[in-house]
Design a protein that fits this description.
The chain is α+β, with helices and mostly antiparallel strands and 202 residues long. It has 11 helices and 6 strands. It folds into 2 domains: 69 residues, Orthogonal Bundle (Arc Repressor Mutant, subunit A), CATH 1.10.10.10; 106 residues, Arc Repressor Mutant, subunit A, CATH 1.10.10. Helices cover 45% and strands 13% of the residues. The strands form 2 sheets. It has a 3-stranded antiparallel sheet. This is SMC-Scp complex subunit ScpB.
Length: 202
């Protein structure tokens, strides 16, 4: 790229190396992983520079959950949707379960069920695990030491979030018209805290 020049006019080798490593990567990479692959120490400072070079282009360099990758520019995503196979849509239970985990993580299956008010099937969690959107995050220090779940960097990347602080609030969802009268019940899911429903600490 013509913009990747050092002060002396020569190509910036570090930016070129980062570009090559990220382009060839099968998954988003952390600063530590890129540092190991490239063998340079100032990767963290160079990544924003490389991202700036791609700003406004057809592809862009973004950080999601502490990991960096190239993606199609958001305003051009519709072009790829025409040819990309549509993934299987999540069920209502899957959407609600994912929302609870995202807003309350880490949470156990019992805590998810307490918030939803109904039991969830093992298949619902399996679908989210297979999609790479949630992960086991250890065990709750409570009787039975239940497994707890949290979202992944893949979840952030798929939904275009830099981190969980970018999750929309109820006001944002209403303004976007994403909540109908039935879905307004989700407001209760987001506002309630799991430990208040289960009586568990933590």
């Amino acid at each position: 790229m013509s913009d990747e020049r050092s002060e002396g006019g020569e190509p910036d080798d570090l930016l070129r190396a980062l570009e090559a490593a990220l382009f060839a990567a099968e998954a988003p990479m952390s600063v530590a992983e890129l540092t190991t692959v490239i063998g340079a120490e100032d990767v963290a400072q160079a990544l924003p520079r490389l991202a700036a070079l791609y700003a406004g282009r057809g592809i862009e360099l973004v950080e999601r959950g502490g990991r960096w990758h190239f993606q199609t520019a958001a305003d051009l995503a519709h072009i790829l949707r025409r040819t990309r196979e549509e993934p299987r849509k999540l069920s209502r239970a899957g959407i609600e379960t994912l929302a609870i985990i995202a807003y309350h993580e880490p949470v156990s299956r019992a805590e998810i069920e307490a918030i939803r008010g109904v039991q969830i099937s093992k298949g619902t969690l399996d679908v989210l695990l297979e999609a790479g959107w949630i992960r086991p995050a250890g065990r709750r220090e409570a009787p039975g030491r239940p497994l707890i779940y949290a979202t992944t960097a893949g979840f952030l990347s798929h939904f275009g979030l830099a981190d969980r602080r970018d999750l929309p609030g109820i006001a944002d969802l209403k303004a976007a018209g994403l909540l109908d009268p039935v879905d307004l019940a989700m407001e209760q899911l987001i506002m309630e805290k799991p430990d208040e429903d289960t009586g568990q600490e933590g």
